[in-house]
Amino acid sequence: MSRIVITVQGVYYVLTGLWPLLSMATFEAVTGPKTDDWLVHTVATLVLGVGIALLVGGRRNDPSMETLALAGSAAVAFTAIDIVYVANGTISGIYLADAAVEGVFLVALAVASLRPRHA
Question: What pTM, to 2 d.p., does this model score?
């Protein structure tokens, strides 16, 4: 099951990472105007890289602990950033939708981790 979760999470990160790189105008139309496009592009490129790493790690029948750690830590980080910066008014409330998706990844990863790993 963790393989499926990691793969879905990887696809989500690749798509969300590509979005501002391909169309900053539509990204800002949904998420609100940004001051520093270079910073958005930097984060987008990092999200894209994490997504690619998850897709590679998710190809294994039993994903490595490193892949699981990357999946979990990325979801925690994005959830925390979304919640803190929406709460203080820095970013749009639409980012809470991302926090919800990240929460689903965290729950799914936790459930998958309860299942025995293959030797």
Answer: 0.92
